[in-house]
Amino acid sequence: MNAALVKPLWAAIALALVLISAFSIIGSTHSSRSFYAQLQDLEAQRWYLEEEYSRLLLEQSTLASHYRIESEAGEALGLVAPGHDQTRLVAQ
C-alpha cells in the first residue's frame, strides 16, 4: 500500500474511535445521573413510607389500648365489667 494513504486512514480510524469513546462517556454520564436522580426519588419515598408506618403504628397502639377498648365498649355497647358479686369461682 501507499504510505501516503496509510497515515490518513489511521488518522480517520483514530478519530472515529475517539468520537465513539466520547459519545460512550456522554451516554454513561447521562445514565449515571439519571440513576442517581431515581435513587434520590426512591430514598425520599422510603423516608415518607417509614414516617407513615411510624404514624400507623402509633395509631394502632392507641386504638388497641385496653382503656380505649373498655371505654368504647361501655359507650357504644353499654357493656360494663362484672362486679365481685356477679362473678363465681368454678373449681375443677
Round the Cα radius of gyration to an integer and report it: 37 Å
N-to-C SSE string, H for helix and E for strand: HH
Strand count = 0
Number of domains: 1
What composes the largest sheet? none
Counting DSSP H or I runs of 4 or more residues, the number of helices is 2
Helix content: over 70%
Kindly state the mean pLDDT as a whole number?
90
The geometry reads as rod-shaped
Class derived from helix and strand content: mainly alpha
Stretches with pLDDT under 50, minimum 5 residues: none
Alpha-carbon distance between the termini? 112 Å
Strand content: under 5%
What would you say about this model in short?
It is a single-pass type II membrane protein. It comes from Congregibacter brevis. The protein is mostly helical and 92 residues long.
Structural features, described:
With 92 residues, this protein is mainly alpha-helical. It has one domain (3-77). It contains two helices and no strands. The protein has helices at residues 3-63, 66-77.
Task: Tell me the layout of helices and strands.
Layout: H1 3-63, H2 66-77
Key phrases:
92 residues; 79% helix; rod-shaped; 0% strand
